[in-house]
Design a protein that fits this description.
By secondary structure, the protein is mostly helical. It has one domain. The chain contains 10 helices and no strands. It is globular.
């Protein structure tokens, strides 16, 4: 499988994801809706998995080096987590959100194609490379879903206030507002939504912790130190601490629902900065993680 095959793969899977998204809002029986949504999304997931396996074989290395490759994994993990959470709680907006976010990252790759290199620099030829990156991307996908849930909770909070709140939510989050209007879960409240996000955050935080741990072990092997305060490492630590603060506040201030929702929403900004935002900062020019900027 070659990178030149990606557009065909992406278009085929994207059509399936869009059909699954549309299906969620059709006036058909719920049982049929669930079957169609699952079937279309699972087929899209299988298409991407086949492409990733083929690309891995062709490159003779894990396709995890460039931003484009990690975006592809992120899209796949979003689809996978969307399927799992949808079938766990049967909330249509879970799958709608995850499919939409996956489409965004697929389109970014289509508009900004990456150049794939068959070789890896020496620092990446470590057995810690694959588990470190995969666990990190998985944590990003899980925590990304928690962000979607938080946005859902915020809209649920503010659209109940007044017309102004509804207008603001529509301006800044039109997709979420539309899904809220069409959602079958009319009796949900922000606290119930936040409890769902807690379960997701705990899982994502566990993977994030593993990612930092594997990264430290990898750094020791590649550069001789567990931690060097590299910009990427610093932002990873900040992301870790922000989510830790969220969990601490949830434990000791259980009923500050809006505060928790805002912190969870802002935490995702730190995550995005740690993932690729830091690459555009002046301090990253001498970073040992500059290999991730390969285009």
């Amino acid at each position: 499988m070659y990178w030149t095959n990606f557009p065909t793969t992406a278009y085929a899977a994207s059509i399936l994801l869009i059909l699954a998204f549309i299906n969620l809002f059709l006036p058909i029986k719920t049982k049929l809706k669930i079957i169609l949504a699952n079937s279309l999304t699972i087929i899209a997931l299988i298409i991407f998995i086949i492409f990733l396996i083929g690309l891995w074989i062709h490159l003779n290395r894990p396709p995890l080096r460039t931003l484009g490759e990690t975006r592809l994994w992120y899209a796949v993990f979003l689809i996978l987590i969307g399927i799992i959470t949808f079938n766990r709680w049967k909330y249509f907006w879970f799958l709608a959100f995850s499919n939409f976010m996956s489409l965004v990252f697929i389109l970014i790759n289509l508009f900004h194609p990456e150049t794939y290199n068959k070789t890896l620099m020496p620092a990446l030829q470590s057995y810690w490379f694959v588990p470190h990156v995969i666990v990190y991307i998985l944590s990003y996908a899980v925590l990304g879903v928690s962000w979607l849930v938080a946005i859902k909770g915020l809209i649920k909070s503010y659209t109940k206030l007044n017309l102004f709140g509804k207008i603001i939510s529509f301006i800044f989050f039109p997709l979420f507002f539309i899904i809220e209007i069409l959602s079958d879960e009319k009796n949900e409240n922000s606290e119930k939504i936040l409890k769902i996000s807690d379960n997701i955050v705990y899982i994502g935080f566990a993977f994030l912790t593993l990612g930092i741990t594997f990264g430290a072990l990898w750094a020791k092997e590649a550069w001789g130190n567990y931690w060097t305060w590299d910009p990427k490492e610093t932002w990873a630590l900040l992301t870790f601490l922000v989510y830790l603060i969220y969990m601490h506040l949830r434990t000791h201030y259980k009923y500050r629902t809006k505060l928790h929702l805002w912190i969870l929403s802002i935490s995702f900004v730190f995550l995005l900065s740690a993932w690729f935002g830091v690459n555009y900062m002046p301090s990253a020019k001498n970073s040992v993680h500059t290999y991730s900027q390969t285009e």
